[in-house]
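haha ok so turns out i had the wrong file open the whole time. this is the CORRECT one, sorry everyone. sequence first:
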Amino acid sequence: MKVSVFTLGCKTNLYESQQIVAGLLAMGHDAVIGLCKADVFVLNTCAITAEAEKKSRQAIARARKLNADCKVVVVGCASQKNAEQFADLDNVTFVKGVHNKEGIVKLLDSYGVDVEQIPSVYAHTINAVQERTRAFVKVQDGCNNFCSYCIVPYLRGRSRSKDVDVVVDEVANANSNEVVLIGIDLSQYGKDNGSSLEQLFSRLQGLPVRIRLGSLEPNVVTEQMLTALSKLNFCPHFHLSLQSGCDSVLSRMNRHYTTQRYYDAVQQIRKVFPCVAITTDVIVGFCGETDEEFEATCQFVQKVGFADIHVFPYSPREGTVAYNTMADLPAYVKKRRQEALTVIKHQLHGKFVDSQLGKVETVLAEQKKGGFWQGYTPNYTRVYFKGDVKCGDLVQVKLTKRYLDGAEGELV
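then structure:
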């Protein structure tokens, strides 16, 4: 049977889709990641915003266009939030939530809705089918933060961590030159089972792959953690979640740090990793954000000197504290602020790329397009270069000039 597994949303969702594919292949099915003509479509949905939930529903129509007689199985955050929005749609035969997604491989012929209760401990059953270049290893699920704008803790449950031994084994057998450790909130790893990020990093020492991290919270940055990372083949890139550069907005968001704590974490990181790239997410136009509060954010991101910023306008999400108790800002205000911060983002990114020019870096060759190989340096600078290499190779490249969203380089 041909099965198409289509993913919306985060890297954790992609990893879980790769687990589903691994299970399907083991059962003898012809299974692929991506939307293509198939007998059965497994749609791994997202609900981080109302727009993501809408795209999840629209994916069913896209599947029907590829095969009008197909079966559609829906899993993930959008179905966890509201299974009934999918259950009555044409071609949808089975709806499941976020827990035990990989178990769907045994339920392709089932009908109805089965949204299971989320467990209190990490449940791991099968390793994912990995890409040839960069492998993702999910080490944690759930979130305890309950930020006032975020629906995720209500859908993914409380934080729970994969056993250290299981993580080490999966990383060691990933068959890739680079492994990214990911989770819904990676910073909470180990707090539920007596382990810690430091213990995990210590156990990963000596493995012949370079290690990259998913998003972190600033509160997790300590001297001990950074020391443990420095002993790994670590890629010095931190995606350090910010959301706002103003303390009063952070308080309304129920973020658990101040801008001073965030800046201290940045300084700690740069002492240990001088060539680090620090990237972040910023939400503009959060409930009640004044012009002065937005200006504070603009000044703070320039003070930090980010390598890149993902800029998002605030999107009200039903079921969150902010949705129920705080007034939204007009759309034109959010759009104007998004445009203003995006200008700063491009200025900072260009400045960071310029600081990398002239350096020789180890680049992971990921794809060839338009005559150029594309890949990333350890600090996640995107590089375009020509040469006789193979996909997945780690090669030495000298960065020569700014190009597109990164730098052009010469193979050494």
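The CA atoms of residues 47 and 393 lie 36 Å apart.
again sry for the mixup
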